[in-house]
Design brief:
- With 1904 residues, the protein is of the alpha/beta class.
- The chain has 53 helices and 59 strands.
- The chain is 27% helix and 16% strand.
- Strands 37, 38, 41, 42, 43, 44, 45, 46, 47, 48, 49 and 50 form a twelve-stranded mixed β-sheet that branches. Strands 35-55-54-56-57-59-58-52 form an eight-stranded mixed β-sheet.
- Helix 30 packs parallel to helix 32.
- It is globular and about 140 Å long.
- The N and C termini lie far apart (122 Å).
Length: 1904
């Protein structure tokens, strides 16, 4: 037994291996870090970590190390420089050192000093000149060995575990490598010291042995460097012990540790039978650490110090070092439990004044003596002794059932009248939890930090009970916090002690403070209880608890414990652990505690039983005896008889009169305004936050939500089974107009249609939910949002609800919302909405902390973030109103009512207090009504508070001409009691003839609202409702109705109350069940909106408790809100009060005004018209009143004022039970209301009672993290089974949680969210495509000849050859390009459009928004199931599974071999041919002309792209309709990696690096040359297989990266005449178009095939001729065989396609454009041509450079530009060519002759293209005189004779462009230009490039 237990303790592991040193604690490290950052870092760490429990957030906040210890904490320590104490040497009772036994070395290893166990030399002198491999982040340090004093051993240590220059910031623990044998990864210094043969006699520790840094000197030799600065080494002063002693006797300060260098063992010869769980489990210095529960309100200096330090308040001190007499904390191999130990113990004289001081200042428990032996946490020994008999008639005699709380140790059996006592394990659990530290702390080596001893626990419990007032009830939470503080404070002192050790002068004096012994315990407990006037009685027993309990029962029967509330029974003996229990004998306390143990259902059953069995009758008869005039009922009857004749009394007359007046149009109340539904800025902000969370889920790489695949939104709102809540939600949904906006319903909504979207979670819910699930499966392209409103209701696990005794509806949420179908459906997003999210924030929650959205706070640093004209009044504002300095406290309790209840409780001990409280309150209301009606003697039988409520209720309707009155909510949770109350009050009202004055309504969650006909008529008049059958269905529709609403049901279920609510009477809520959610939701009934426009005479609200949970501020979007302590701007007073309609719903017609984002800013039409509203099932708030215009004037004229005007200056008044009032209004040391630290929900429990306190400063996000770390669900909770070792797996990716205070407008926010989400989805499925008409249409020849019929599918080759080529460019993107003249054209200047500015080119082109079809091309943001494999996101296709292949071919024009690289994914290798063996790329497979297949595209597609890795439309899966195709992306070398990352499954063709700065011409050039080379290779390869060369498919497709959709025109020629036809255009797949073109007869005779650019304005004339011979752009099929000798110009940046088209035509080849096909081009704002920026080469500062500066004179000092010469030339000519060709400006009849090239000279100059090649097709130039000549890099085909054919105007200009000045001169000579042209020296120019950038040179001249 002995060895067992001790070794068990010694083997307690330290999971993170972090020995805690005094010198290198984290002290001060995070001093400046914001609390929030640490919390966020922690959440991130916990998400990434594999541990089940997240790291403790608060333990990352360390205390700043104090430089000096206060005298309170000063510890005098015996110490030498070489022997520093730390907690690993866990102190000892004796000062004699104990030898440290090392683990024996492995057999056969080296044990020589200075060598490691592998036999390698480690001595510095031996290896100083050797090269030592030091890993990154490691340092070489010198270790001292005790056996080699003159040597240093070289070690490599991770520098994170070494301190900085201040001795701080070293990580706890060790990580090092052996530099001798190279062994790595030593995680324990113990293990490392064994390996390097330190042979220590004391426990190894790094501070003692790692002494010096090692550095290399100038010669490169390793030498001893500076000393490693371990903290504490330099702070050792010499201070005598006596200087810290004070008082009589020597009190050792609490922080003095145990004497130094010995490890402690269990004491020798333990008493037989004593279980040694741990010899000294608790050597925590006992400080008075529960100071906040201070006895006299005083605090020790230490507590104040802790309070002033935020970190101290919020961290659980798990890093604290601890002096402890148990075995060492790690599994140190040398420690043995049998090791000898000195038995000397220092018994210091007890200071007799100490206990009194405990009582007086609450701060000196530290002076109590401690002893070595403390009992274990719970003893396994069964108590010997007889069972204890409970006396008969105990309840009768005591008037209460005593509650016995089991404490420590064993509890005896009870027998006899056991029904009269209640035994609870609650305290036992609390003690046990306090003993077992949370798993979260173990990460910091927690096993060494010992919990509080049992004696200390019991003593602290006694102190707690002593200071409770007679009307207070002990709370387990309070006790847990006291234990927590006590434990934490003892560790704070030790941290400081180790940070700054002050050694002792006398090493022999031990500095241990002995703990409380079991022998001293009863005496100390008695001492503490002696001052409390007998409220706590201590019974000490020597043998077992049985004697103490028997004595207690005896004293009870004898009546000797009348004044005593608590009896503490202690059985303590020296030889074993203590046994204890606490008996609650106070009648009030016992009643509250025993009732608190009932579950809600047991509570209902108990009350019901007492009502049914008639036990309450005794209470009724007692009441009747109170009234001196006899029974109240007799009085009422008498009153009724007397007044029966005068029924038109003043009261009812006024009510009747008011309705009559309305008809005549006389006095009508104008303060009754019906609020229009509108979206508030807050709701919009929250809706946008929800949207951004949805987008971030979609954007994440997890592919959990593919927003791009959804076309519309559908939704279902789940609400609790309350009829009123259900109707209320229908009402909001109807008026929001959301169903019409989402297109879910057409006009003329009916109530039945709206009901489909709201699900009441009752017995019939499953059928409706099944329909929802079926819809979601049948519509994969609809996103279904499942909204779970009031989400904290019913979190019961479905497994637990299968038991027969539970209601059918419990566990329904789990069954429906957590079913497999919902979890797995990729198109269902679940949104939980609640005011009390705590139960959904546990360690097992389904909701990721990143998916929580909290309602933002309204103010940040005094700035109004969302300007609203209303101020919200929630819990924190109600609490604020109770503070001094406020005129009206809004929270109150009724002391006379409480006194009456307490007295009756003692008289009727068997009745449940809920029954007593209800009967008393009904009596009070009845008496108050009678008193108001004239029976003034009844005032003595009610309380002042109840009388005030009743008076105001009855008088309110009299003061208003229309009869408006106030609402009183009387909350009675228990339904049977509510029915009794309703019956009684109804009866009293009838007898008093008040039935027309106010209504009494029984609000039952399961049924609708029933009110009298008279009141229905009144409501209809006020709300202008004409529907005969109208009845109010929500409480909101009772606006202005004077009534008492008896609100029953165990919990409110989301019902909203009207603005006329004036009193919220919560005196009957169940105050024994103290749970945060329960309390806050009861108070949430009173939450209110107050208008803040007008200022009143006295403010009700001051600085708001801004960071109280109710002031939900969020840290999700830190830029939007920052949590603050309060804000001065909130001091404006609440005025013109307005009831929030629970949630002001989203009205889409108004949302545009307040909108912020793009989705919200588009105005949408009002969707709910007046006509629709008239048919609404709810009429109350839909129509606004007309009279509001002159309301102020009318109010002034009125004689009597309506209650609604008067009371709108403040929120309702709330009455609470005294117990609840105390909890709500009392705050902890940080200012947080006590209610916030209660257990958050009844189906969760605390993970540990050793948890940090919550803080007032916590934002909602931080509170969420707190609950996520410190609460776990009970087995009955639906999240209980949601556990997984990998933390991330437990979060459901499509679940969100929206939390906000009650009644603040969450319904409106989520309905608005649905609206903007729908708009965004529509926007996501749309793209902006260019929509421009063709240009230069009027210049086109209007030929009457028809070559083809409109319905022809393919061109006829012979007929097509007759079609003349149309030189004119019609593509709108070339609007700014030069016109190409084909012959003498009468082009007027007005025919040409006015050119646009350069920047307008892209930004001002006309676009239209198009919905993406199913055949669209997509960018990287599109994810759907079908194309996952295509995109390579399938697990089979890893990113690295692609290979790089070089492919070289020679090209004579470039004069060198071109080497291209292909990146080919494994999945695409079948498109290529590789050599065997060697796998060299040989060619790309090409099909045959004769191949025909439906699922195959023959032409390889090449897409050149730059700067569009994300936005390029390269996903052709849908466009190709799934057909097999070969698609190659052509990318520049420097962009290869980024394109490969985004498109891992695409083939890349990587251009050589020389083309990194080239334009699109280079890509086109290389694509064409490669394709021709490949065609040759394939012909050769397939020729061997017997295939003719002409049968190989010669076409390739060159496509832009912005082609998004393709269209086809279908022509219907079924008209009467041949010329009649109609046509329609529809979206088709690219596969359809390519297969159609590839099937063209004689297709190989065409050189280029293209299609139209789509335009919405396409006219019939363009369709009439199905095929044109003209320019083709953007998407072309190129015959590489026919165009073998026609090249793209590889230098070109712009217009290279026009240039190529002209070359192809002049070579006599056919260019065909299919006019029935068109391509849509998406506007992409990034990449492409815009990726070329022209900037100065000299400075990096971006300066705008005008095109005029792109050229300069040669040899000038012009600023050179960093841009390709060709780009500068093209841009210059586009904007400034008129400087070269002045005669050509707007002179379209005399164009510029351009030889062999087309360069854009700008829109105001026309050009005429001619080819110098022999046999080329050129226009007839006879009769044309040219205004200029452009010779661009002309080759040998251009000769002088060719140029002499052309005629030029006199003064025409010439421009010759060459690569260098030399070739410029040679060209002038070769072409004999000087014969006809005159040149001047100053007419030579160059592009503004430096010499190394090879500028282009040009020469200009004039025609002679």
């Amino acid at each position: 037994m002995h060895t067992d237990n001790s070794s068990k303790t010694s083997n307690s592991k330290n999971p993170t291996n972090l020995p805690q040193q005094m010198g290198n604690s984290y002290a001060g490290q995070l001093k400046t870090t914001r609390f929030e950052e640490v919390l966020h870092n922690s959440i991130e760490a916990s998400l990434r970590s594999n541990n089940l429990v997240p790291r403790p957030i608060f333990s990352q906040l360390y205390l700043e190390a104090e430089q000096q210890l206060s005298s309170l904490e000063a510890g005098s320590r015996a110490d030498n420089e070489e022997e520093e104490e730390e907690e690993e040497e866990e102190g000892s009772e004796s000062s004699s050192p104990v030898s440290y036994q090392m683990k024996p070395p492995p057999e056969g290893c080296c044990t020589t000093d200075g060598f490691c166990q592998a036999g390698k030399d480690l001595r510095l002198v031996s290896i100083s000149n050797e090269h030592i491999e030091v890993p990154s982040g490691f340092l070489l340090v010198g270790a001292k060995s005790p056996n080699l004093p003159d040597h240093l051993l070289v070690c490599a240590v991770d520098k994170r575990f070494l301190p900085d220059d201040n001795g701080r910031n070293a990580l706890l623990g060790f990580s090092g490598n052996c530099v001798g044998c190279g062994k790595k990864g030593f995680c324990y210094f113990t293990e490392f010291s064994n390996h390097i043969n330190l042979k220590l006699t004391t426990q190894p520790k790094k501070q003692k042995h790692l002494k010096y840094y090692l550095v290399r000197n100038a010669q490169g030799a390793l030498t001893k460097g500076s000393v490693i600065c371990w903290k504490g080494a330099e702070l050792r002063g010499r201070q005598s012990l006596s200087s810290t002693c004070s008082g009589t006797g020597c009190q050792l300060p609490e922080s003095a540790g145990l004497s130094g260098s010995t490890a402690t063992e269990p004491p020798p010869n333990p008493a037989p039978g004593t279980p040694q769980t741990a010899t000294a489990v608790d050597h925590i210095p006992s400080t008075a650490a529960f100071g906040s529960a201070a006895y006299n309100g005083k605090e020790s200096p230490k507590q104040q110090l802790a309070k002033n330090n935020l970190s101290a308040l919020t961290r659980p001190s798990v890093l604290g070092t601890l002096t402890n007499s148990g075995p060492p904390k790690k599994r140190h191999k040398g420690w043995s439990p049998e090791s000898p130990s000195s038995t000397e113990t220092w018994n210091l004289p007890l200071n007799p004044q100490a206990p009194n001081r405990i009582k007086n200042d609450g701060g000196s428990l530290s002076s109590l003596p401690h002893s070595a032996l403390v009992g274990p946490a719970s003893s396994p020994i069964v108590g010997s002794g007889e069972p204890v008999s409970v006396p008969d008639n105990l309840l009768k005699i005591c008037k209460a059932k005593p509650v016995i709380f089991k404490g420590h140790g064993n509890f005896p059996y009870l027998c006899g009248n056991i029904n009269d006592v209640i035994v609870s394990p609650l305290l036992y659990t609390c003690y046990r939890n306090s003993q077992s530290l949370s798993r979260a702390y173990e990460q910091y080596g927690a096993p060494t930090i010992q919990p509080i001893s049992e004696e200390m626990q019991l003593l602290l419990t006694v102190y707690y009970l002593v200071q409770l007032a007679s009307d207070q009830v002990p709370l387990i939470e309070d006790l847990e916090q006291i234990f927590m503080r006590s434990w934490r404070e003892s560790h704070l002192s030790e941290i400081r002690q180790y940070q700054q050790m002050i050694p002792q002068t006398f090493p022999q004096v031990p500095s241990q403070i002995a703990p409380v012994t079991s022998a001293q315990l009863p005496w100390l407990a008695g001492l503490a209880a002696s001052s409390c006037n007998d409220s706590v009685h201590i019974i000490e027993c020597s043998y077992s608890l049985a004697e103490g309990l028997s004595e207690m029962f005896k004293l009870l029967i004898e009546g000797k414990l009348i004044k005593t509330n608590y009896v503490v029974i202690i059985c303590a003996s020296r030889n074993r652990a203590i046994d204890s229990c606490i008996v609650i004998t106070g009648k009030y306390q016992a009643r509250i505690l025993s009732e608190g143990m009932l579950t809600p259902s047991d509570y209902q059953k108990e009350v019901n039983y007492q009502l049914v069995t008639g036990k309450v009758e005794s209470l009724g008869s007692f009441f009747s005896t109170l009234c001196p005039e006899g029974d109240i009922d007799l009085l009422l009857e008498k009153f009724y008889q007397e007044n029966q004749g005068h029924i038109s009394s003043s009261l009812s007359a006024s009510a009747n009169k008011s309705t009559a007046l309305n008809g005549t149009g006389a006095a009508v109340c104008t303060s009754y305004e019906i609020e229009r539904h509108q979206i508030r800025p807050f709701q919009l902000a929250v809706a946008q936050k929800l949207l951004s969370h949805i987008c971030s889920i979609a954007d994440s790489s997890t592919q959990n939500l593919d927003l791009g695949s959804f076309e519309k939104i559908d939704f279902l709102i789940c609400v609790p089974p309350s009829e009123v809540t259900y109707q209320q939600t229908l009402f909001h949904l109807w008026h929001s107009g959301i169903l019409l906006e989402l297109g879910l319903e057409k006009q003329h909504l009916t109530k039945q249609k709206v009901e489909q979207y709201v699900l009441k979670l009752d017995a019939e819910a499953q059928i409706k939910f099944k329909v929802f699930l079926q819809n979601s499966m049948q519509n994969p392209h609809t996103l279904f949002v499942l909204i779970h409103d009031h989400a904290h209701w019913d979190l019961m696990s479905a497994m637990h609800s299968l038991y027969p005794q539970t209601e059918l509806s419990t566990g329904l949420v789990d069954r429906l919302l957590n079913c497999r179908e919902v979890k797995e459906a990729p198109n269902i997003v679940t949104l939980h909405v609640t005011s009390f999210p705590y139960a959904l924030q546990t360690q097992h929650t389904h909701i990721s902390p990143y998916n929580e959205i909290h309602w933002p706070s309204s103010y940040s640093n005094g700035v109004d973030l969302y300007h609203e004209n209303k101020k919200y009044f929630g819990l924190s504002e109600f609490i604020e109103s109770t503070l001094s300095g406020h005129s009206i406290p809004l929270l109150r309790y009724d002391s006379s009512f409480e006194a009456m209840v307490m007295a009756l409780g003692k008289r009727f001990p068997r009745l449940h207090s809920a029954v007593i409280r209800t009967f008393v309150l009904i009596q009070h209301y009845s008496a108050a009504m009678m008193a108001v009606c004239g029976l003034s003697q009844m005032k003595n039988y009610t309380s002042v508070e109840t009388l005030e409520i009743t008076q105001n209720l009855i008088n309110s309707s009299r003061q208003c001409p229309s009869g408006h009155g106030l609402m009183v909510v009387l909350r009675i949770p228990c339904t049977p009691l509510a029915a009794v109350a309703y019956e009684r009050l109804y009866n009293v009202r009838e007898r008093l003839a008040l039935e027309d004055n106010f209504e009494i309504i029984l609000g039952n969650p399961n049924s609708g609202i029933t009110i009298g006909k008279h009141f229905v008529e009144q409501l209809k008049v006020w709300q202008k409702i004409e529907d005969v059958d109208w009845r109010p269905q929500t409480y909101l529709e009772l606006e202005g109705l004077p009534c008492i609403l008896i609100f029953s049901g165990m919990d409110p279920q989301g019902e909203s109350l009207p603005r006329s609510l004036r009193y919220c009477d919560l005196r009957l809520i169940n105050s024994s069940s103290l749970v945060r959610t329960t309390l806050e939701q009861e108070l949430g009934l009173a939450a209110y909106f107050v208008s803040s426009e007008i200022h009143t005479e006295k403010a009700v609200v001051n600085d708001v408790l801004e960071s109280d949970p109710e002031k939900l501020s969020s840290t999700d979007n830190e830029d939007e809100e920052i949590a603050t302590e309060g804000s001065t701007s909130e001091k404006r007073s609440p005025m013109k009060r307005e009831r929030s309609h629970s949630h002001d719903s989203a009205s889409s017609s108004l949302s545009s005004k307040a909108s912020i984002t793009a989705f919200c800013s588009e105005p949408s039409p009002p969707l709910v018209t007046a006509g629709d509203r008239a048919k609404s099932p709810h009429q109350v708030l839909s129509n606004s009143t007309e009279e509001t215009t002159n309301s102020h004037e009318k109010q002034k004229q009125k004689t009597s004022q309506c209650f609604m005007t008067k009371s709108s200056k403040q929120p309702p008044i709330v009455f609470l039970p005294k117990l609840v009032y105390d909890i709500i209004t009392s705050t902890d040391s940080s200012g947080l209301p006590k209610s916030s630290s209660l257990l958050p929900y009844h189906s969760v429990m605390w993970a540990s009672s050793f948890r940090p306190l919550m803080s007032k400063m916590m934002t909602c996000t931080e509170q969420s993290l707190y609950y996520r770390q410190w609460t776990v669900p009970k087995p009955i909770h639906m999240d209980y089974n949601n556990r997984n070792e990998g933390r991330m797996d437990t979060f459901h990716p499509r679940r969100l949680l929206l939390s906000g205070p009650p009644q603040i407008g969450k319904t409106g926010a989520y309905l608005q969210f649905l609206s903007i989400l729908s708009r965004m989805l529509i926007r996501l499925t749309e793209v902006d495509v260019y929509d421009e008409e063709e240009i230069n249409i009027n210049i086109k020849e209007q030929s009457d000849q028809c070559y083809h019929q409109p319905g022809d599918t393919w061109p006829d080759l012979e007929m097509f050859k007759k079609i003349p080529f149309d030189y004119t460019i019609h593509d709108p993107k070339y609007e700014d390009a030069s016109l190409i003249c084909s012959k003498l054209q009468a082009v007027n200047s007005e025919d040409r459009p006015i050119s646009r500015r350069q920047e307008d080119m892209y930004t001002h082109r006309q676009t239209t928004r198009m919905r993406l079809s199913k055949y669209a091309a997509y960018n990287t943001y599109h994810h759907c199931e079908q194309c996952h494999q295509y995109m390579g996101f399938n697990p089979r296709y890893q990113l690295y599974e692609s290979t790089l292949h070089a492919f070289a071919f020679s090209y004579s024009m470039l004069g060198e071999e071109i080497q291209l690289h292909f990146i080919i994914p494994k999945s695409k290798e079948h498109h290529f041919v590789f050599s065997q063996p060697g796998r060299q790329l040989e060619s790309m497979r090409l099909p045959l002309v004769t191949d025909k297949s439906e699922d195959f595209i023959k032409s390889p597609t090449f897409t050149p792209t730059t700067g569009r890795h994300e936005h390029g439309l390269f996903n052709l899966y849908h466009a190709m309709d799934g057909a097999s195709h070969l698609h190659v992306l052509v990318v520049k070398e420097y962009e290869m990696a980024i394109y490969k990352k985004y498109w891992p499954n695409h083939i890349m063709l990587v251009l050589p690096s020389i083309f990194n700065s080239a334009g699109v011409g280079a890509a086109h050039f290389l694509i064409k040359e490669l394709s021709y080379h490949n065609l040759e290779l394939e012909r050769n390869r397939q020729e061997e297989l017997g295939i003719k060369p002409q049968d190989i498919w010669p076409f390739i497709v060159i496509s832009d990266d912005s082609c998004v959709m393709w269209n086809a025109v279908e022509v219907d020629c079924s008209g009467d005449r041949k010329s009649d036809y109609t046509w329609t255009e529809r979206n088709v797949s690219l596969k359809h178009i390519l297969q159609r073109i590839e099937a063209t007869p004689n297709v190989t005779h065409y050189a280029l095939i293209g299609m139209r650019k789509w335009s919405s304005k396409t006219n019939t004339s363009e369709i009439k001729e199905p095929f044109s011979c003209c320019h083709v752009h953007d998407f072309i099929m190129l015959n590489v065989d026919l165009t073998q000798n026609v090249q793209y110009n590889q230098n070109r940046f712009t217009c290279d396609d026009v240039d190529f088209n002209l070359r192809v035509h002049s070579a006599g080849l056919l260019i065909c454009r299919f006019n029935h096909f068109s391509v849509m081009k998406k506007q992409i704002a990034v990449g492409g041509q815009r990726s070329f920026h022209i900037k100065s080469k000299v400075s990096d500062i971006p300066v705008s450079i005008s095109p005029a500066q792109y050229i300069c004179a040669p040899d000038s000092k012009h600023t050179f530009l960093a841009a390709p010469a060709q780009l500068l030339l093209e841009k210059y000519l586009q904007y400034h060519s008129h400087r070269f060709f002045p005669l050509s400006l707007k002179n379209y009849r005399h164009p510029v002759l351009s030889v062999d090239c087309y360069l854009n000279l700008g829109p105001q100059i026309a050009v005429c293209y001619v080819s110098s090649r022999p046999h080329s097709l050129n226009i007839s130039s006879s009769g044309l005189t040219f205004s200029g000549l452009l010779l661009y890099l002309c080759d040998s085909f251009v000769v002088a004779s060719f140029l002499k054919k052309f005629h030029f105007l006199k003064g025409a200009t010439l421009c010759v462009i060459c690569q260098d000045r030399n070739s410029l001169r040679q060209t002038v000579v070769r072409l004999e230009l000087e014969d006809e042209w005159q040149f001047r020296l100053r007419d030579e120019f160059q592009t503004a490039n430096a010499k190394e950038d090879r500028p282009l040179f040009f020469l200009t001249g004039r025609h002679i």
